[in-house]
Design a protein that fits this description.
334 residues
């Protein structure tokens, strides 16, 4: 399913959908706070619908360009993109591969999962945005010109994203349909000339990353034979489960950690996902999304700081995980 979502995101990016969204946001009247909030909403939407790896890969350059177009310190939007992508990935199974790994032993539908996780998701998104906003103070921005034109084409990528969302929500087994949809969208884009054959090398790069995901999951499966860690979650409290999930994701990356910790069905899967999805904001070793973010940021001419990532990201995690866990416990009872 993740492969299909990334393929759809790749086509949507080629059609200019993400760039146009950033261009429109940069053209809005208002100061840097309005720009930040607007673009973080875009990040949330793309993450929820098309996966967090798609979000950091295609939106990071867009957000950097939006900050530069307004003569703003780009760090707020730069770091906000990766932190918010991790936070927003809590909502749907396909938003984060770790969600799918945990859900494989839970046997729940996407709609049920979303309804359970929504309170925690909303709290995590708000907390992450607030901490990032405060951590990177910005001067007043000049008013943006309204002369820019919306150049996105509502083509196969946009239609594919809408259909993928419907499939993830409505279908009890969306993985194969979404994969077929992603391949179909890619094929349509190639036939229509929206995506040139010369750009398939970029798709190949994405396939390498997907291969790395498979390798990480394989290593996690191998690690399960050691036993012990997954047994801890059978009787652990919600708070203990969240802490274990956070520690495991920072130690061995959240993908193998998810496989390792779900050899047996955890007592509190929602709390585990808080640790696996939000915990990686504390260190760049926590998730593949950080690697992708570093790569595209460097390609855009920015040098991210590991120290800044850890400092501000730890603040977002320390604030968002407890608050989200309280929301999960008191509202969803997961």
């Amino acid at each position: 399913m993740v492969t299909g979502l990334i393929a759809i995101g790749f086509v949507a990016n080629a059609e200019g959908l993400f760039a146009a969204a950033g261009e429109v946001a940069a053209g809005l009247w208002g100061g840097p706070v309005i720009l930040f909030v607007t673009l973080m909403l875009v990040v949330c939407l793309v993450t929820v619908v098309l996966n967090l790896d798609t979000s950091v890969t295609f939106l990071t350059p867009v957000l950097i360009a939006a900050a530069r177009s307004r003569d703003l310190d780009e760090r707020r939007l730069l770091y906000g993109c990766v932190f918010m992508s991790n936070a927003a990935s809590l909502l749907l199974p396909g938003s984060n591969l770790t969600n799918l790994i945990v859900l494989r032993v839970q046997h729940t539908t996407a709609m049920a999962f979303a309804s359970q996780m929504f309170p925690a998701w909303a709290v995590a998104v708000v907390a992450t945005g607030a901490v990032t906003l405060i951590a990177f103070p910005s001067r007043d921005a000049r008013c943006a010109s309204q002369s820019k034109q919306f150049r996105a084409r509502i083509g196969a990528g946009a239609v594919g994203a809408a259909l993928a969302t419907a499939l993830v929500i409505a279908s009890p087994q969306p993985a194969l349909p979404v994969l077929i949809l992603g391949i179909s969208v890619l094929g349509v884009a190639l036939l229509r000339g929206t995506l040139g054959f010369s750009r398939l090398g970029e798709v190949a790069d994405l396939s390498v990353l997907i291969g790395l995901l498979g390798l990480a999951v394989g290593l996690g499966a191998f690690a399960r034979s050691w036993g012990g860690l997954s047994d801890l979650l059978v009787s652990a409290s919600r708070w203990q489960t969240a802490v274990i999930g956070t520690g495991a994701s920072l130690s061995i990356n959240n993908l193998p950690a998810a496989v390792l910790l779900t050899a047996h069905a955890p007592l509190h899967p929602g709390a585990l996902l808080l640790g696996l999805d939000l915990g990686p904001n504390m260190m760049v070793t926590g998730s593949l999304s950080a690697y992708l973010w570093f790569k595209v940021s460097t390609d855009a001419g920015v040098r991210p700081s590991i120290k800044t990532y850890a400092t501000v990201g730890s603040l977002t995690a320390v604030c968002s995980i407890p608050l989200a866990l309280i929301a999960l416990t008191t509202i969803s009872h997961v």
